[in-house]
Amino acid sequence: MIRIVSAPKGYSKCLDMSSDKFIDQVLKNWRNRLQATYSSGSLVEAYCHQVNTCIQIALLCVEEDSQKRPNIGKIVEKLNEIDSAIGELPQKVSGMAMHNNKNIGMRKESEDIKGQHQNINLMTGPSCSELEAVDARETSSNAVEELIVVRTEEKWKIIAFLLLESKSKKIVILPIYGIGGIGKTTFERLIYNDPKFKYYSRVWIHVSQIFDLNKIYESIILKLSEKESRANERQMINSCLLKLLSGKKILIVLDDLWEDGQFHLQELKDMLYHADSNIIILVTTRSQRVAGIICTNLQPYKILPLTNDMCWDIIKQRSAFEARDDKKQLTDIGREIAQKCGGVALAAQSLGFTLRSMNFDQWMKVKDSDTWNEPVSNDASLPNYVLASLKLSCSHMGSSLKKCFTYCAIFPKGNKIAKDDVIYQWISSDFIKPTKILSDMQLDVEKSR
């Protein structure tokens, strides 16, 4: 694709072609290559059909209307269909050998293209964040394994306070603010999943930097009614919300709020207020200003940094420290590393995973690394020690893991990566070796046990 766009191999003549002519040209080129490789006409036709399907999928993936683009599940389903069709055709061993040689050649060619990438200047266009209202840091309410070392007492105080306030107020809004990585979302999730709110209808919304009131309302409607909203006007949305919120106890989480426009935030509060409802709203934000604007009757709650001992506890848990034979020699070094976390849980967790497979000398290198003193970001809401810890984690990855990690950069911002699919892609790129790959039938059997 890089060669076609940049035209280093004579593809410039394709620039003036219509899309249909261009596709015909691509198919013709593939047909010529396949006919030179295979003697079977049916096999050539099958592979040409495969190429055509891949082109159609690619065109759908760049549809201007994002709603018309297929998700990874649909793409894999289509690819599996054409793989199955090819698999049903009789193939000679010699043909397969030639096909494998062709794949090896194509892999070498792709490496060559990859090497040229740095020297090619392509036309710039809008960034992913301008095209899509999505965020790569999207959170959810799903109960996952969390390391909570000190927030339990804080959680009980907040829950008791919220329940008490909700007895006398129809709507209670509590903003929770603090620097990035401090543990706001984790703390919020603890409250959200607590049994004391089991009789509440609960809604979790990841807001992100792109504030879209309609999407927030649609998310609330979807999660309360379990149906997609067909309302497209504000009055209709308000009417729908009124019915869903009426007479209910509801806990709403607005996670990662960045919007600081007073008008928009007031409009949001007005839409969520209903006289015969009992609504508790939790908001997380990095900004104290945003927290001050969104709050109504409660003071914003600031998440304080963890102590050095708490960060050390997280590092010990994530690094399986207690199971180590050399833990006595590493204790003082580990405590010094914990001090560099700045009280941020994310930094401690990242370092804990990094240190798990390291020996004494490697622990010393992490402690004395110059990365801690390098300016990494100008973002005051994400302090240097957070990004420094992440950078150290990345730099100490094994070569195979680095390839897998770097490969994930091909996915657009906000894309939800299907774990099993990306593992197959790593295997096909020869980043990792397959161990035991289960068929769909075997997976169903495993799930039923």
UniProtKB/TrEMBL annotation:
<dbReference type="InterPro" id="IPR002182">
    <property type="entry name" value="NB-ARC"/>
</dbReference>
<dbReference type="InterPro" id="IPR042197">
    <property type="entry name" value="Apaf_helical"/>
</dbReference>
<feature type="domain" description="NB-ARC">
    <location>
        <begin position="157"/>
        <end position="318"/>
    </location>
</feature>
<protein>
    <recommendedName>
        <fullName>NB-ARC domain-containing protein</fullName>
    </recommendedName>
</protein>
<dbReference type="InterPro" id="IPR036388">
    <property type="entry name" value="WH-like_DNA-bd_sf"/>
</dbReference>
<dbReference type="GO" id="GO:0043531">
    <property type="term" value="F:ADP binding"/>
</dbReference>
<keyword id="KW-0677">Repeat</keyword>
<dbReference type="InterPro" id="IPR027417">
    <property type="entry name" value="P-loop_NTPase"/>
</dbReference>
<dbReference type="Pfam" id="PF00931">
    <property type="entry name" value="NB-ARC"/>
</dbReference>
